[in-house]
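Hello,

Following up on my earlier ticket. Below are the three sequence lines again, exactly as submitted.
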Amino acid sequence: MFAFIIRRIIQATVVMLVIGFIGFSVKHQLGDPVRDLVGISVSVEEREALRQELGLNDPFLVQYGRFLANAMHGDLGHSFFFKRPALDVIFDKAPATIELVFAASLIILLVSVPVGLYSAIYPKRFFSRFAMGASIVGVSIPVFLTAIVLIYIFAVQLHWLPSYGRGETINILGWESGFFTLDGLKHLVLPSIALSSIMLPLFIRLIRAEMMEVLETEYIKYAWAKGLSSKRIWLVHAFKNTLLPVITVGGVQLGILIAFTILTETVFQWQGMGFMFLEAVERSDTALLVAYLVVVGALFVVVNTVVDIIYGLINPTVTVASR
Amino acid sequence: MQTRRQKIKESYLLYSFKRDKVAMVSFTILAILLLAALFAPLLAPYNPYDTASIDIMDSEIPPSWTEEGDSRFFLGTDIQGRDLVSTMLYGLRISVMIGIGAVILQALIGIAVGLVSGYFGGRIDAVLMRIADVQLSFSTLMVAIIVSAIVQIAFGVGRYEQLAVPILIVIIGIAEWPQYARTVRASVLGEKNKEYVEAARVIGLDSRRIMFSHILPNTLSPVLVISTVQVANAVMSEAALSFLGLGMPVTKPSIGSLIDAGFEYIFSGAWWITFFPAVLLIVFILVINLLGDWLRDVLNPKLYKG
Amino acid sequence: MSLLEVNNLEVIFALRHGDLVALNDVSFTLDKRERLGVVGESGAGKSVTGFAVINLISKPGRISKGTILFDGKRLDRLSEREMRHIRGNRIAMIFQDPMMTLNPVLTIGTQMVETLRAHRKISKKDAAKIAIAKLELVHIPSPERRLAQYPHEFSGGMRQRIVIAIALLTDPAIIIADEPTTALDVTIQAEIMDLLLELCNTQDMGLMLITHDLGVVAEVTERVMVMYAGKVIEVAKTSDLVASPMHPYTKGLINALPGHGECDEENRLQQIPGSMPNLTEIAPGCSFHPRCEFCQDICTREVPELRSLAGMDERKVSCHFAGTEQMQ
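Thanks for your patience. The regenerated structure is below:
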């Protein structure tokens, strides 16, 4: 088990190095650190001097090494628009995105598990058929359209919920949180529903399919023959076996939610990393773009590594050596 | 023997198709939409690319059946004064073109990688599949968004918009190849150790020949199933990119960029500019997904989980 | 009165193209401490019979006729709740493949304790004590330590011993063993069978042994019931059946055993020609007639009854010509 964890961590490091390399190449080709630092109103001679001083005339690999070393110290370059270190900007925006993803994951989990299990246990009931039909319609609606429809109904027509922004936030230990004010929670409702809408159908179908497969197994039939209660058979015997594939696929899918935050944040003007990223693209703020790439890459790698390790821990039959 | 099995399979496909109303309706709608996209220049009442025929005075006219409607424009006009029906037809054409182009590209890359990986195994397999895993874990949409953002900055918005169609095909194609690679590899591994491949090897056929003439046909049904879903995914990815302003420009809009263009005006009452393209997009993706679901049930191939 | 009495049981599977009769007029009894063998080819209805007794037939199957009397209670009339109290408590089951029977993500201890606690009001600690005692009974070394292990840490033979131990937990009156050794290595098969036989004697249990292996039946059981295409075709004391089978199908089965029956001139094992019909395409008349070497006109028209033979109380056979001269 220990060797397995070590191997996964080494793998994660390699992936991070590759992401760093891609990020650096983008920066090297497209970025202009001099402009990022001093703007455009500086003479050519001064710029050249600055270039020399910053080491921008060094060989590519030397600069890559320096980039990595700086990154290790938390220096991912300077945002030319915000006139601040790129990483600081991202950390300012991260809480908004993380809270959005967290709320959406919570919705996904709370809805998909009961619905998936119910429609696996009673596949012929009306509700199950309805859930399956609705889920295929659900995957066919792009997340930005769900978002627009939600805004149109609940904000524009009914005036029940706000249509954009994060609302009132409270600073807790440097973390701008919208979880603790009524206004913040109100602002969170529509974006998190919109974000969860893309994954919810997938999760319901996944849980249902896995559960149905498990319910057909010999050990479930044997559990019935032992005279156990249906509650215990469904929730312990069957569900525990369903969890394994759901965690592997589900963990990765939750990571993928981060990609969809870009769309959701755009529609709701949610001041998170995704919104910031698109602004950075429009402003050609290369340093910020690269920093976003590295941070999001790290997030993905961490999520996947943790999911893999959890999977190894809870599955007693996992053949650790072969992975 | 092979052809007979194929025939039985095909007739079974037809049989279950005729029994399934959802599949038939979906197929009919999809066929109509595809034909409409193909013949858009013939069907559309106006040419939305012809700037000379567009009058800015016609902008934001509601659909013809509403009070302020204009009988010339059945579904109304967009913000630039273009007939919405025509713009949607041309937009669908572009979305379909990008979707199918991207799927062909990703299928070519993915099938090649999957075949090599499954057939040779060992180190090559381990490395290729690891790359596929890592790329998939980053989500295809994320890869597409970041790559298109980088390309847009590199090219500049103007040149990017000129070359948007081929660029989007390449970006979405590259972002989605691992799906194919994994599926094809899984079915190659399934077929690889079957007797007929062994037999072919014993006769002394070389490995490439075996691969293409024996294994490839057997991987077709899983490839067919994921292809339907992948076209839907590609169209959706394109729509998402366009909605973010990283895809097709408004001057040559796809369905996604039409929705994006209309989004700003939805709250000022011009709902139709977003509404009709949105319905078209959802219907198009929905019928493909329904067909894909049906195909999966009928062919029931061993798909790679996850 | 017998402990278990099954009368005129009929089980049908409602399929899209119509009903499929999996069990047709099946009757048998099982006394206290009796060991009954149920023999037949796969698809003959042996397993369905076993599952029907505890009312656990997989969908779309259901009991459509007949009665099941256990300890004076009509099992076929019990509510799901009452039935649950019988399953795994009064009547325990042993499944075919021990690799598939135990839940892979729960420890042996959990799977044993939960069974006890489903039927008795006892603490986890006391339940674990009983579990350990039963594991000892099936000769599993250091059982305390084993409770914390998962099924994949055991070999197939060990797992079947655990399944047997689970069956013993509640001191059931009957164990239904559905091909308990088919999935195991030959050497282990004998060990498990010996264990079952030993436990039946020491633990006061009845055994319903479902198998396709007449050899095993001959060694373990006292009485045997032969099934063919969803019907009982012969019932007899095991020793009588092996010595003098009455039904042509049983004769064929016995002749197919190595070292039994008359071998033909080339001294080879005999086979029954043909194969058992699919349940959807059973011929009219005696369902065995297409394969029967003694087949007469009447066999193709009339279904033979399961009848006692003159002078042989414990034997029943369903063949028009059983015991007559045409069969010699």
